[in-house]
């Protein structure tokens, strides 16, 4: 089972990893976006980390909803609304639980992805964060259906997200700022898919076989 303490540990680790990759994410975004994804994500998750102590003893839904609302209010561009929606939808799906299973997480991930898809009016294949999130969800479901352990299932999801991230390189962007570049967007890795992969890798690394 994954506890609320594990969720706090995940968000804390993701904030650390985002900080480490701030310049990398901004570099990716400079090629096809506004050159601020790393900067915005670092600021947003710094604000999330500051809020965590006040909700660490709450249920998982409250923790994730607080993270989402904080991101919406502190992250500029598309990242704030999209990541904010991700966490708020995941939190709503997990509700008042103080611990949850990998199967519960797969349901929450589906809800979060549906929220991102609706908010961004995007579908997989358009060079967005969905290109990492959607294959990760499919891999998580498949692993759990095949009887994989929690850790193995989470790692399968992270691996699929990484593959999806790399798959954005040859894609033509048709959504967001990158779409303005037309065919010049081809050949560049999507920064949102990259941060999404890092997020799911942090979940796999932090939750493992708890």
Detailed description of the structure:
The chain has a two-stranded antiparallel sheet. Helix 4 (60-74) runs antiparallel to helix 5 (79-94). 53% of the residues are buried. It contains 9 helices and 2 strands; from the N terminus they run E-H-H-H-H-H-E-H-H-H-H. It has 210 residues and is an all-alpha fold. The longest helix is centred in the N-terminal third of the chain and has 19 residues, at 37-55.
Please describe the topology of this protein.
Layout: E1 2-3, H1 4-20, H2 22-32, H3 37-55, H4 60-74, H5 79-94, E2 99-100, H6 102-120, H7 130-145, H8 150-167, H9 191-207
Antiparallel strand pairs: 1-2
Helix pairs in contact: 1-2, 1-3, 1-9, 2-3, 2-9, 3-4, 4-5, 5-6, 6-7, 7-8, 7-9, 8-9
Anisotropy-based shape: globular
Strand content: under 5%
| Euclidean distance between termini CA atoms | 6 Å
CATH class: Mainly Alpha
């Amino acid at each position: 089972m994954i506890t609320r303490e594990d969720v706090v540990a995940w968000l804390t680790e993701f904030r650390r990893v985002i900080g480490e990759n701030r310049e990398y994410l901004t570099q990716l975004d400079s090629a096809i976006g506004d050159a601020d994804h790393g900067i915005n994500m670092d600021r947003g998750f710094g604000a999330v980390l500051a809020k965590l102590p006040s909700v660490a003893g709450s249920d998982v839904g409250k923790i994730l909803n607080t993270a989402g609302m904080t991101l919406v209010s502190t992250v500029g561009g598309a990242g704030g609304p999209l990541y904010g929606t991700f966490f708020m939808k995941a939190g709503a799906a997990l509700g008042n639980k103080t611990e949850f299973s990998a199967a519960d997480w797969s349901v929450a991930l589906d809800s979060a992805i549906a929220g991102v898809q609706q908010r961004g009016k995007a579908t997989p294949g358009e060079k967005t964060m969905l290109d990492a999130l959607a294959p990760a969800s499919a891999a998580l479901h498949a692993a759990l259906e095949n009887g994989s352990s929690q850790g193995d299932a989470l790692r399968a999801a992270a691996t699929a997200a990484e593959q999806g991230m790399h798959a954005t390189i040859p894609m033509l962007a048709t959504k967001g700022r990158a779409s303005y570049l037309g065919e010049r967007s081809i050949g560049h890795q999507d920064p949102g898919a990259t941060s999404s992969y890092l997020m799911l890798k942090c979940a796999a690394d932090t939750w493992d076989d708890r």
